[in-house]
Structures are given as C-alpha cells and as structure tokens.
C-alpha cells in the first residue's frame, strides 16, 4: 500500500503514460488518414478509367454490334453517371478524411499543450487548405469529371446518330 504522499506522483506517472499512448494513437490515425487519400484517389482513377473505357468502347462499337444509337447514347450517359457517383463517393471520403485529420491534429495539440507546454505545436488552420494535397486531389476529380462530361456532350453523343 502506498503512503498518502505517494499517490500524487503515481497518478502523474499514469497520466503521462496515458497521454503518451493517446499521442501515439493520434499520430497513427493521422498517418492512416494521409494514406487513405491516396487509396481513394487510386480507387477513383481505376473505376473512372474502366467506366470511361466502356463508354468509349460503346461509342466505337455500337453500330457494329447492332445497338440503336439512342440506346448507345443512354449507355454512355449511364456509364458517365456511374463515374460521377464514384467521383462523389471518393470526394466525400476525402472531405471526411480531411475533417478527421483536422480533429486529430487539434487533439494532438491539446495533448502537447498540456504535457509539454502551450503552443508547442501550432494548430492547423482551415485557411491553409491551399497547401493540403487533398485540395488538389479534389480539384483533379472535379476537372477530370468535367472534361469527361464535356467531351461526351459535345463530341461523343452528337456523333452517335
């Protein structure tokens, strides 16, 4: 049994260990969130490439296959709609990941403020979004999806007669 004066140093030690374990967990989660953005981009690129390839194959081969032009146009629109759904899902996952990253970093700052000293780690600022790679992944998704729809609407669909 510990003496009444020994309880405080023991609690302080337990508190430090707990904070250290929580800090390790937060760093692990931040790392996982960073990796997930690349995974989501890879999923988008793979699925979008497959769906757009199918749309182009339909465009090239619909007359040879005996498919009516209106049906082929509907197929191209359907495939691009699926691509849009994949893009929306991927974008949602990236935005949610960025929000989670923001929360983890704030909690990391809370721990370092308490255990080391206030201001040891600067808190993340939303206005720094221009430096986040997630911003550029989202821009890539938006631009690539826009280009796909524009090319389909102005080149592919009018040519399918």
Element layout with pairings:
Layout: H1 7-65, H2 69-115, H3 133-159
Helix pairs in contact: 1-2, 1-3, 2-3
What is the gist of this entry?
By secondary structure, the protein is mainly alpha-helical. 83% of the residues lie in helices and 0% in strands.
Description:
The chain starts with 6 loop residues before the first helix and ends with a helix. It is rod-shaped, with a radius of gyration of 26 Å. The protein has helices at 7-65, 69-115, 133-159. The chain contains three helices and no strands. The longest helix is centred in the first third of the chain and has 59 residues, at 7-65. The chain is an all-alpha fold. Helix 1 runs antiparallel to helix 2 (69-115), helix 1 runs parallel beside helix 3 and helix 2 packs antiparallel against helix 3. The mean pLDDT is 91.
Features of this protein?
mainly alpha; single chain; 161 residues
Q: What fraction of residues sit in β-strands? A: under 5%
> What's the SSE pattern?
HHH
The count of β-strands is: 0
Cα end-to-end separation: 90 Å
* Average pLDDT number: 91
Low-pLDDT segments, ≥5 res = none
Largest sheet: none
Shape: rod-shaped
Spatial extent as radius of gyration: 26 Å
- Counting helices, strands and paired strands, the structural category is mainly alpha
Q: What portion of residues is helical?
A: over 70%
The DSSP helix count reads: 3
